Every structure is written in C-alpha cells, then in structure tokens.
Amino acid sequence: MNRLPQVWTYLAQEPLLWLTVTLFAYAIGDALFNAAGRRPWVNPVLIAMVLLAGLLWVTRVPYETYFEGAKFVHFMLGPATVALAAPLYGNLDKVKKSALPMLAALVAGSITAMVSAVAIAYALGVRGEVLLSIVPKSVTAPVALGISESIGGSMTLTAVLVILTGIMGAVMATPLLNLLRITDWRARGFAVGVASHGIGTARAFQVNETAGAFAGIGMGMNAVLTAILAPILVRWFL
Amino acid sequence: MILHLAVLLAFQLIGETISRGLGLSLPGPVIGMVLLLGLFMAVPKAAAAIQPTAQGLLSHLSLLFVPAGVGIVGHLNWLGADGLPILLALAVSTALAIAIGALVFVGLSRVMAARE
N or C: more exposed end of chain A, with fewer CB within 10 A? Predict the structure, then answer.
C-alpha cells in the first residue's frame, strides 16, 4: 500500500495519465452532449474543460505537467486545420457561387465583433491594456495572440477571451440563428466561423457539413481581415 | 490512413515554412489548408483519397480545443475586476456578430438570386 505515493508520483509526471484523462473527460462531455439530444448548451469542450480543471485543482497538478500529456491532442489542431481543405473542396461549387455574400458577411461580422465588444467594454469602464486585449477575441488563437501583441494588449488575457468567445459562439449560435429564422447552412456556418473561430467551426461541423465548411472559410478569412483592421481601428478610436 | 496523415502534416510543414520564412501573420496550418485545396483542385483523385482521414479528424475537432481550454481556467482571475463587463461585452458582441453576419449573407444572396 505504501507504494501508492510512488505510483502517483510517476503517473502525475508522465504524459500517459493526462492524455488518457483528457480523452475520457471529452468522452464524458460527448456522452452528456448526446444524452441531452445534442443540445448546444451542453457543450462537450466546456464540460471536459471544467472536469479537467477541477481534477487539476484537486490533485494540485500544475497546468504545465498536465499539458505534457495533453499536448499530443493539442498538436492535432494543426493537421486538422489543414484537413479543412477537404470539406472546402467538397463544397467548392457552393463557395464559388456565394463569394459576394461571403465577403459582405465577413466585413460586417468582423467589424461588428470588434467594435461592439470594445464599445460595450469601454462603456462599462474597461480601459487600457485590458480593452486592447479584447479587440482580436473573435480570431483563431495563434493569429489573435499576434494581433494582441502588436496593438499593445496582453497575450495571456487574449488567449482567455478567445476561448470564451469560441464557447459562447458555439453555445448561442443554434438558438440565435433559429430565432432569426435563418435556414441557409452557408450563412449559418460562415457567420459562426467569423464570430467564434475554431470552436464555433467545431460546433458547426456537429450540426451540418456545409455549415462546417463555410465556418472554416469564415474563420480563415476573419483571421486575415482582423489582422489588417485591428491596428487601424485601434489607431483611429483608442 | 498513415500516408494521408503524412500528407496533412507535410502541407502544415510547408505552410509553417512559408509563414515563418516570409514573416506572414497568417498561421502555417491555414496556408497549408489553402495549398492542399490547390492540390485537390489540380488532382481530384487526391481529394477522394484524403477525404475519409480528413473527415475523421474534423469529426472530433472539438476535442482538440480541450487542452488549451483547461489552461484558461487557471487564468480566469486575469479578468479581475473587469470580469463582468468583459463577459458581457464578449456575449453581446458575439451574438451581434453572428446575427449580423448571417443576415447580411442571406440578404445579399436573396438580392443576387432575384437579379438572376
């Protein structure tokens, strides 16, 4: 029995435990999501996040140790982004036909996301570095961090805001778009990708493949547009 | 399956090389995606071959955000005294951006369809 602490010391340090636990936490989140009739507010990412963060807090294992195991999952984000080319190719005819609506929706969605977030935060008394960190929150994480740094925001805070925005978008998209009676999967997916990047795109793929493909395009295009617009908006208004 | 995964990684590698080599703000995987789309358009057979692997990866796209998500929980105190205003700003702006983006898309496609 007194070997238990030794076993724990080994397991807590090795990638095996945390990789396994990450997959199980997600499996639990996914099972709850399915059991709840795939309702958007039962978000598997959020459930897995809360379970794992709670476990780390209870066991006092630092995030860095956890990430040593979880990084294998995290790494797959790169090839998965490249893989978005497949649904994009499958929907190429639809994409070509909707180039103009896409561009207009991109500009409208991107500017709305930036300006309304900053305006609301400013009206509620948020200033300085924190305010600047909000600007790129709708953009996929690697690009958002770069933008945040270049306009004088805090990269750590931006990382938090990007994930929160993604989860909010994933949770609210379906009820909101149903409320607006928008049935066009292209429009639904694209708007979600622009406003809530990869986590919104993952949600779109859960609902409809065309929506997922358009969300992926929205995410990619908004990364480029925000990188161009954010410094200009900051210079004009902040 | 292994070959297809290797192709995806190779395109990410090319994308990263271009992104860093030219100092672009666009991340490597996004450039890799565009290049792979180019390959699919030139060689449609490649698209059919890689499709199942790509679909397998994308059907679990949500899982891949979990490790980064766990990291933010420890940083929630970064929101500090501004926590509530920030959460409100994020929620309202995300809802507005989704609604306006989708409405503009639908509105413009209707106008275009009416003109045809």
Answer: N
